[in-house]
Here is the input.
Amino acid sequence: MTIETWRFIDSGDCSPEFNMALDEALLDWHSEHKIPPTIRFYGWNPPTLSIGYFQKVDKEIDFDAVKKYGLGFVRRPTGGRGVLHDQELTYSVIVSEDHPEMPHTVTEAYRVISEGVLQGFRLLGLDAYFAVPKTDEEKAGLKDPRSAVCFDAPSWYELVVEGRKVAGSAQTRQKGVILQHGSILLDIDEDKLFDVFKYPNDRVKERLQRNFKNKAVAINALRAEPVTIDEAKKAFKEGFEKGLNIELEPYTLSDEEILYVEEIVKKRYANPDWNFKR
Here is the structure.
């Protein structure tokens, strides 16, 4: 089987608005056939709370806590729930809907793309696998989530180790292109995570946080030797190559491309009308 060459961008730690604008720009460029399918790794400076496209800010987010922790804030172009981007490796995958290896349904395409993430966990020595909601309660949770926290909820083909979620991803399809991006947790500060969301009362918050330990876990809580960000990048880059049967070719953005991204930043992701619209 022929191995396809995809583009690989490691953009390092960027502002929340630049991160989301670059993912959107890559989708645009791929839809215009200017770039091949692309995988991107990135981090966040400052650590950031991102929310899903459909989330309601006033109802779900505690902005006093966001300010107290000095967090950035941005609304993603993808769905899903809130994610605290802090001690993690974030990835995005940009590929055409009509790519011969991409299934037509969202859930099946999610499974195929996430195979790269799965292989990355295994290269780090973790026995990751795909799980799907099985009980009626879990399936109901997909339609009516109890929490605004991404890692607190089940989803189709979520990646788990020892029964606990280890990566959270979201997907959108625009202009004939799939954009999937997600968080791979190296460590997690549960108190900070739960402080930035609103709850009906303290008792509900405490119960959700207590149950969270049984639902999600970070890589370094599963390993005797902590993983550095560089080790994680190496493992997941190889994981995507193995899982998707591709070769990744490093690429650096041109000055012209960066200017295009910065235009999207001003138009959308640094614009309060976008971030606070719902």
Remarks:
- The first strand starts at residue 4 and ends at 14.
